[in-house]
From TrEMBL:
Pfam families: peroxidase. The active site is at residue 66. The gene is LOC123065104. Its main location: secreted. Binds 1 heme b (iron(II)-protoporphyrin IX) group per subunit. Binds 2 calcium ions per subunit. InterPro entries: Haem_peroxidase, Haem_peroxidase_sf, Peroxidase_pln, Peroxidases_AS, Secretory_peroxidase. Residues 25-325 form the Plant heme peroxidase family profile domain. GO terms for molecular function: heme binding; lactoperoxidase activity; metal ion binding. One of its GO terms (biological process) is hydrogen peroxide catabolic process. The keyword ATP-binding does not apply. This is Peroxidase. It is found in: Secreted. It comes from Triticum aestivum. Disulfide bonds join 35-115, 68-73, 121-321, 200-229. Belongs to the peroxidase family. Classical plant (class III) peroxidase subfamily.
Length: 325
């Protein structure tokens, strides 16, 4: 019942915001006249995908992040490599790791069936990521729409802009501030790791070797080593980024940071690293103590990240998300 009420409130908010135009180009009402069924089509596609495999909610959320951090949320991450085109799918952070492309294809096909050549792939990913979070029990928010699809992609930008799993706090702060996202947005958005899974290769060094300010809780390290990550081999073995409830979008991740029970060094850097002004430490404690505060800040930060967009007459509305028109 609470969820239903929350949804009703969000719908009312969307209607109230209909006249508001962000960045001169984007608006929640962008497709109201041209594709009124859009949001229900995306929601249904995501509900089916998450029901089939809960992890897909996490995968689509990550897809949106990896799109937005490389030349903006322009669906560049969806372009397939061809003989004469190198896209982002095989960049280091994406290869054998990023997933959910088929889910976006299926939703795009359904959107095209009712609204031909109207809705960008970038907007579909933005809506799908919002729905993924709410389907996993997290907050919902009104999505600004009107993004255009890029006509290019950059494997090099994907390799350099996406943070590696051993990134230090100063590096993370810089990468996010380069996108107009402050320490609060960095900390809130990192809370996405309350859902989903990671491969042993991304966290082996952290759970075997990190000490001092990056030390891992000993019992947790023992458990993960035995269950999912031998000191050699098993690179592709998966472990949940948040151990207790990897399919529930809650604030458990922040409690894990405080307890030093997380897989990624980059995550632990937000708490107890002993460098910087301690602002991320204070936010981690606040989010660990108050799930509502995390939900509110996460939703706001997702909107901000989603505003890194190509709009107006730039780019195009792709017919097939995997190739430019
Ligand atoms: C702050 C810097 C970040 C770093 C260094 C980072 C790194 C990683 C790594 C290494 C993985 C595991 C990938 C694999 O083993 O295949 C992962 C998974 C994931 N990331 Fe991040 N990430 C960051 C921020 C974010 C943000 C901002 C979001 C979304 C808002 C996000 C969402 C996710 C999700 C949901 C997964 C699980 C995906 C799945 O299960 O398919 N991450 N991340
Ligand atoms: C690139 O390859 C595709 C087929 O994969 C072809 O249709 C297209 O004309 C080629 N473009 C250029 C500029 O060579
Ligand atoms: C841990 O450190 C030792 C000593 O430097 C090194 O030999 C080993 O490869 C490291 N293991 C991992 C998993 O990083
Ligand atoms: C938790 O955060 C919400 C949102 O900022 C706030 O309204 C509420 O008062 C906080 N709860 C507590 C117990 O501090």
């Amino acid at each position: 019942m609470g969820t239903l009420l929350a949804r009703v409130a969000v719908v009312a908010l969307a209607a109230a915001a209909a006249a508001v135009v962000v960045d001169g180009q984007m608006s929640p009402a962008f497709y109201d006249a041209t594709c009124p069924a859009l949001q229900s089509v995306v929601r249904r596609g995501m509900a089916q995908a998450v029901q089939k495999e809960a992890r897909m909610g996490a995968s689509i959320l990550r897809l949106f992040f990896h799109d937005c951090f490389v030349n903006g949320c322009d669906a560049s991450v969806l372009l397939d490599d061809t003989a004469n085109f190198t896209g982002e799918k095989n960049a280091g952070p994406n290869a054998n790791s990023l997933r959910g492309y088929e889910v976006i294809d299926a939703i795009k096909a359904q959107v095209e069936a009712s609204c031909k050549a109207t809705v960008s792939c970038a907007d579909i990913v933005a809506l799908a990521a919002r729905d993924a979070v709410s389907l996993l029990g997290g907050p919902s928010w009104t999505v600004q729409l009107g993004r255009r699809d890029g006509r290019s992609a950059s494997q090099n930008a994907a390799n350099t802009n996406l943070p590696p799993p051993d990134a230090r706090l100063a590096d993370l702060l810089t990468r996010f501030s380069d996108k107009g996202l402050d320490a609060r947005a960095l900390t809130a958005l990192s809370g996405a790791h309350t859902v989903g899974w990671a491969r042993c290769t991304t966290f082996r060094t952290h759970i075997y070797n990190d000490t001092g300010n990056a030390a891992v809780d000993a019992a947790f390290a023992t458990q993960i080593r035995a269950k999912a990550c031998p000191s050699a081999g098993g690179d592709g073995n998966l472990a949940p980024l948040e151990l207790r409830a990897p399919a529930a979008f809650d604030n458990g991740y922040f409690q894990d940071l405080v307890a030093r029970r997380v897989l990624l060094r980059s995550d632990q850097e937000l708490y107890g690293s002993g460098v910087g002004d301690g602002s991320t430490d204070a936010l981690v404690r606040a989010y660990a103590a108050n799930a509502t505060l995390f939900a509110v800040d996460f939703a706001a930060a997702m909107v901000r990240m989603g505003n890194l967009a190509l709009t107006g007459k730039n780019g195009e509305v792709r017919l097939n998300c995997r190739r430019v028109n």
